[in-house]
Amino acid sequence: MTPFQPVSLAVEGLALSRGGLRLVGGLGFALKPGEALLLTGANGTGKTTLMRTLAGLVRPDEGRISCEEPVEEAVAWLGHSDGLKPGESLRMALRFWADIHGASRKTILPLMRKLDIEPLIDRPAGQLSRGQQRRAGLVRMALANRPVWLLDEPAGPLDGAGRERLADLVAWHRSRGGIVLAATHQTLDWPDAGHLALKAAA
Amino acid sequence: MGGMGAIFWREARLAWAGGGGPAGPAAFFLAAITLAPLAIGPDPDLLASAGPGLMAFAALLSVLQSAERLYGDDFVDGTLDLYALLPIGLPLLSLAKTLGQGVATLWPLPVIALLGGLMYGVPLVSSLMLAASLAAAIPALVLLAGFAGALAAGVRRSGLLIALIATPLMVPVLIFAAGAGRAGFEGDERALANLGLTAAISLGTIALAPFGIAGAIRSRLG
Fold first, then answer.
1. Summary mean pLDDT of chain A
2. Chain B residue closest to A81 (CA)?
3. Is A58 in contact with B79 (Cβ distance < 8 A)?
4. Which of A28, A184, B56, B159 is the right S-S partner for B178, CB 3.0 to 4.6 Å?
5. What does the alpha-carbon distance between residue B184 and residue A202 come to, in Å, rounded to a whole number?
6. What residues have CB less than 8 Å from B13, skipping those under 6 apart?
7. Cα(A14)–Cα(A179) distance, rounded to whole angstroms?
8. Is beta strand A9-18 parallel, antiparallel or unpaired with respect to A21-31?
């Protein structure tokens, strides 16, 4: 894979709300290339809203998100749903995402091997289990070859082996100078990852 | 622009593979124009004069019938989030996506309208005029349906909302597309003018609707 330009990400004084309800206020953190941050917090404390705000899908009430590159060119996103079409084979789907991100199609198979789903390449996504779909979603995200990975509950549907593969993928991305932010309920054992706990706003 | 091509072909392929492609709108259109004479009665003159208008009307309804899936599915399965994060930008993306789906699912409509016109006793030249005006109307119809579909993405009973939003917007297209076929039938030289106006509306919609769709998507995601 061609190397990307590492970036750092800084968040200052961020305030978020959902449906008119204030979730988070005065949130700040900074991440340098190669760093990872795990967001934890009970349901409804704003983890997903924070991730969507960082991706630029939601506008914050207040505060600043700074990054050397515009968000649309820096961020790779993995949300609750994997963005797969039930009738589309992984081969066709991943080829499309590689093309649209200007990545070589030759990077698809090595990434699928990393997540141990290479034999499923010609299966339609609708026939895969949730965990297999999530692995395919991770491949799709890695194909974008972006420096900042935003993962919303990445380990949710994954089994033990899948979580290990995820940890390897994240370690690989960080070794290339990438940043990883993950909102999670699971305990993810990522070496020297930062932790940030969101609490319910008063 | 290369990205637009990739999106156009993917959406066309998905519409074909996942949604039965043109079968749904074509079946709906065929059913409507086959049943209408049973209701109107067998008078050949009446059928021939009502034919072009009926055909344009049935085509409009068959476009609406598939509008719900245009953005609703993408909203639910997370594709819309991913599309919104592409550097190509939502307006160009929604143009490529909507036209890709539209071409893949609606291409039989002008063909059926031509055959239907002949079946109703409309002369060949006017039937051709009707088919051409429907072909010219498809970009406008599908983009307006897409706009309504994007506004209603993820809303319960979005079909109802889509019909309420899109139907009034489609009125001019219906008038001119049907007018081209009717004027052709009546030997009126205004047939070409009607066809030109239909094409003009389509071009205007191609220029404007993508921004409306992009705004609708952003507000649905935010």
1. 88
2. B78
3. no
4. B56
5. 70
6. A88, A92, B104
7. 19
8. antiparallel
Distance from CA of B141 to the nearest CA of A (A): 25
What are the backbone angles phi and psi of residue A190, rounded to the nearest 5°? Answer: -105, 125
Classified as helix, coil or strand, B52 is helix
- CATH code: domain A9-197 is 3.40.50.300
Does residue B133 contact residue B177 with C-beta atoms inside 8 Å?
Answer: yes
pLDDT tens digits for range B97-129: 999 999 999 999 999 999 999 999 999 988 999
CB B79 to CB A83 under 8 A? yes
Strand A36-40 versus strand A179-183 pairing type = parallel
Judged by a CB distance cut-off of 8 A, whether residue B1 touches chain A is no
**Cα separation, A144 vs A137, whole angstroms:** 11
Pairing status of strand A194-197 against strand A36-40:
parallel
Q: Choose the closest CB to A73 out of B78, B82, B87.
A: B87
HSE toward the beta carbon, residue A191, CA cutoff 13 A = 8
Give the residue among A13, A1, A8 at the shortest CA–CA distance from A179. A8
**Which chain B residues contact residue A130 at CB under 8 A?**
none
Q: Do A100 and B6 touch (CB under 8 A)?
A: yes
- pLDDT of B2 reads 67
- pLDDT tens per residue across span B207-216: 999 999 999 9
Tokens at residue A101, please?
Answer: 């991100």
Give how far A57 is from chain B: nearest CA, Å: 6
- What are the sequence ranges of the domains in chain A? 9-197
Confidence of residue A3 (pLDDT cuts 50, 70, 90): confident
Tens-digit pLDDT profile for residues B185-196: 777 788 889 999
